[in-house]
Amino acid sequence: MNSQHRPKVIVGVARRQSDVVVTTAIDLARHFGADLVCASVNEGGHMVGESADGSVTSMSFNPDLVDEVEETFNGDLKKNLDRILDGAGVEWSVRALAGDPAHAISHLADTIDATMIVVGTREESMRGNLHEFFNGSVAVHLAHNQHRPVVVVPLAPVPFGHALAWDEG
Amino acid sequence: MNAEQSLVSGTAIVVGVVGNQPDEVLLQAANFASHFNAELVFATVDMTRYTVAEAPDGSVSAFPIDPDAAELTHEEFDPELASRVKDILDGIDVKWSLRALAGDPAHELSRLAERLDAALIVVGTRHEGFSGGLREFFTGSVAVHLAHRQHRPVVVIPLSPLPHGSHLPWGHS
Predict the structure, then answer these.
(1) Strand (E) positions, B55-134?
(2) Cα nearest neighbour of B111 on chain A
(3) B157, closest residue in chain A (CA to CA)
(4) Which backbone phi and psi does B156 adopt, to 5 degrees?
(5) Judging by DSSP bridges, how do beta strands B12-16 and B39-46 pair with one another?
C-alpha cells in the first residue's frame, strides 16, 4: 500500500525521554499497520508555515532572531530514534514542530489525519505541584482539546497508596 | 455463553465503563481490540462497595461500605448497561466479556489489568465535572490516576473536546 494511505501514529518525543514511549508507539503502529511519525516540539518558536506532510517553518520568540526558519530535528534525538527504531519493522519519519506542544501535535494530527497520538507522562522530578503539572501536561491537554485517541505511556508510576507529588500541600 | 463467566485466553484490553458514557469509547475500544486481535473486557466499578475476594477471571465479591447493609455478594454487572454494551458491539467481530468490580475505580481497573496481563487500558475523559475545580477534577480523574499509578499504556478517548485556545477548567481566570 502506498505510504500516503497507510494509517499514521504520532508519537511525541523529547530528549532524555524514556525509550518506552517510542517502543510502545512501535507496538501500536505494528498492530495498526501504521507508519510512525515522531514529533518533537520547539517551545521557543511559533509556526508560520506548514507543508502537506506536517513539516513546519517557524519564527523564534526571540526578537533578535527575525528570520523564518525551517524547524530542524535535533541531531541527538534523531540518533536515539535511529537506535530504537532500526530494525523495528515500521516505517517512520520525524517532524520538528514549534509552539505549544499539545497544540502543535494536535495540529499535526489533523494535517496527516493521524489514527492516534502517543505521549509519555512527565517523570516524577518534573511533576511539580498540581498547577504546574496540569498546565504542563501535554497528555492532559491532548485528552481535552482534540478528538483523536491519546495513548498515555506511564513513566515512573507511583504505586497506589503512595502519595503523588500533588497530593501534598 | 454467559459473557460474565468467560475467561480471557489471549490478549486482553480492559475498558472502564460508566453508565452515561458515549458509545464512542466502546467503539474506539473495539477498534483497538480488532487491531490487537484481543478480547475486550468491559469493567464497571461500584464505588459504594469494596472487594473482599477475587476469582481468577477478575470477577469479585464485595462488601458494602455501609456497615448496616453488611452482606457479602457477588458483584453483578448492571443489566441495563450490559444490554447497551451488547447493542453497541452487535455486528462487530470482537470477543468481549463483562466484569463488575468494586472499590476505587483506577485501582480496581489497574488490578484487573494486572490479573489479565492486559495490553492496554481504555477509558474516556470525563465529560462533566470541570466545575468542581482543579483539585476535585484531578483526584477524581480515573485516566490521570491510571497514567501515574500503574505501568500499562492508557488509551484516553477524548469526549466533547474543547477547542484549542479555550481555557481548561483549571486555567487562569
Answers:
(1) 60-64, 73-74, 96-102, 120-124
(2) A160
(3) A149
(4) -100, 120
(5) parallel
Contact residues, chain A, for B164 at CB < 8 Å = 102-103, 106, 145-146
B contact set with A (CB within 8 A): 28, 32, 35-36, 104, 106-107, 110, 120, 125, 134-135, 138, 143-144, 146-158, 161-164, 168, 170-171
Identify the closest residue of chain B to A141 by CA–CA distance: B168
CB atoms within 10 A of CB A69: 15
DSSP A66: -
Whether the predicted pLDDT of B6 surpasses 60? no
Number of H helices, E strands in chain A: 6, 8
CA distance to B80, B85, B90, B139, per residue, from B20 (Å): 11, 12, 19, 20
Average pLDDT of B134-154? 79
* Nearest-angstrom CA–CA distance, B23 and B4: 20
Would the pTM of this model clear 0.90, i.e. be above it?
A: no
- Confidence class of residue B133 from pLDDT cuts 50, 70 and 90? low
Q: For residues A11 and A116, give the distance between their C-alpha atoms in angstroms, rounded to a whole number.
A: 9
